[in-house]
């Protein structure tokens, strides 16, 4: 018999463990593919993708950290590495040099465009193509309310964000 989470019935336990293990295993699989094919981590891909989707391909570092669900120290380290590779630029704002705006460079956009086809193919291989349309609808219906509950301020994702300052 499979492990059952205490204080949950069998269905609750199976659902919870499937969600937890997906959340643990999927990022590692995506990271491995991106590192092998594009020499970037999944987190770096998310940072570049978020910047590409932002108005003007730029965000304040604090807004970028929220959008990718990161701490500022982690984001700062990654932005530093991406800047060394010429994929992003950090700029101060007029009037307040402490506020940093992170801009996606032309080289960063180019690297992202190169990475997307293989990355999406891997996402489809691992997840999308394994589910029927009805199952995809079910996953969406189940997970979107959880995301709303976990992020009521709608900080993460690709909302309309402008680099202010």
Give a brief rundown of this model:
It contains six helices and three strands, in the order ααβααββαα.
Task: Characterise this structure.
- It comes from Microbacterium gallinarum.
- Residues 12-148 form the HTH marR-type domain.
- The chain is mostly helical and 165 residues long.
- The protein has helices at residues 10-38, 42-53, 61-67, 72-84, 106-126, 133-150; strands at residues 58-60, 88-93, 96-104.
- The protein contains six helices and three strands.
- Helix 1 crosses helix 5 and helix 2 (42-53) crosses helix 5.
- The termini are far apart.
- 22% of the residues are buried.
- Mean pLDDT is 91; it is low at 158-165.
């Amino acid at each position: 018999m499979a492990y059952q989470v205490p204080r949950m019935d069998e269905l609750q336990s199976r659902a919870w463990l499937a969600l937890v293990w997906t959340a643990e295993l999927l990022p590692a699989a995506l990271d491995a593919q991106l590192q092998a094919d594009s020499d970037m981590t999944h987190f770096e891909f998310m940072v570049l993708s978020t910047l590409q989707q932002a108005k003007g391909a730029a965000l304040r570092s604090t807004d970028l950290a929220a959008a990718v669900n990161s701490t500022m120290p982690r984001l700062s380290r990654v932005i530093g590495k991406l800047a060394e590779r010429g994929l992003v630029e950090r700029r101060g704002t007029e009037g307040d040099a402490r506020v940093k705006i992170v801009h996606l460079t032309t080289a960063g956009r180019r690297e992202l465009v190169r990475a997307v086809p293989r990355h999406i193919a891997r996402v489809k291989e691992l997840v999308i193509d394994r589910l029927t349309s009805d199952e995809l609808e079910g996953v969406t219906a189940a997970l979107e309310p959880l995301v709303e509950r976990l992020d009521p301020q709608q900080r993460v994702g690709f909302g309309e964000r402008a680099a202010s300052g």
